[in-house]
Amino acid sequence: GENVEQHPSTLSVQEGDSAVIKCTYSDSASNYFPWYKQELGKRPQLIIDIRSNVGEKKDQRIAVTLNKTAKHFSLHITETQPEDSAVYFCAAAPGGSNYQLIWGAGTKLIIKP
Amino acid sequence: DADVTQTPRNRITKTGKRIMLECSQTKGHDRMYWYRQDPGLGLRLIYYSFDVKDINKGEISDGYSVSRQAQAKFSLSLESAIPNQTALYFCATSAPPNYGYTFGSGTRLTVV
Questions:
Q1: B94 and A99 in contact by Cβ < 8 A?
Q2: Residue B1 reports pLDDT greater than 80
Q3: Is the pLDDT of residue A10 over 70?
Q4: What is the least distance, in Å, from the CA of A4 to any CA of chain B?
């Protein structure tokens, strides 16, 4: 079955710098890759996603890139702000009609003032 | 607003007690999930249900049971709580062909 690995587990960056979180997946048929953000004490919420027929997607300061050949996808956050501090989860949806998500272990992003 | 509601939000219980966590949703989604989150760890799937008559074990189902009382309600039970079941529990819903998951606000359970 699908397996998703996420790195790093903790990332500390200076406010204003960029942050990159990377996930690798094992099932080459996986076709959907979302990123969820979980602020302290809150529920995980979808912030951006990408489908397998697209290489990159942007939404203001966040972007996701997908490399199907290498089977990895990354979340990029530019001009980081204090409110970006959170745990970020990646996930992958294996191919087929199952529509379930397989989750990465999460990355705690710390924005230093 | 359509949402996913979990009750209780916080609960402290004693070892050996039976406890039920409840999840209800107004999103009209068929699929419902229970996840457990431990500090510093990710989301681990306990049980999931694709419709009222469908119940499936996840990766960490031992010590837990579930009941899908209706399309909108999915309950998680700990028959005999133990301290290592202390965690944050999330319910989630989804509705294929949409891949997105909607999470509840979570139940923080402490077993003493």
A1: yes
A2: no
A3: yes
A4: 11
Residue among B43, B100, B104 minimizing CB distance to A89: B43
Contacts of A34 in chain B (CB under 8 A): 99-100
For A86, name the nearest residue in chain B, comparing CA atoms only.
Answer: B40
What does the alpha-carbon distance between residue B37 and residue A103 come to, in Å, rounded to a whole number?
12
CA A50, distance to chain mean position in Å, is 10
Rounded Cα distance between B64 and B47, Å, is 8
- In a 3-state reduction of DSSP, which class is residue A111? strand
Pairing label, strands A102-103, A32-38: unpaired
Distance from CA of B24 to the nearest CA of A (A): 15
d(CA A8, CA B63): 31
pLDDT at B15 over 90: yes
Dist CA B49 CA A44 (whole Å): 20
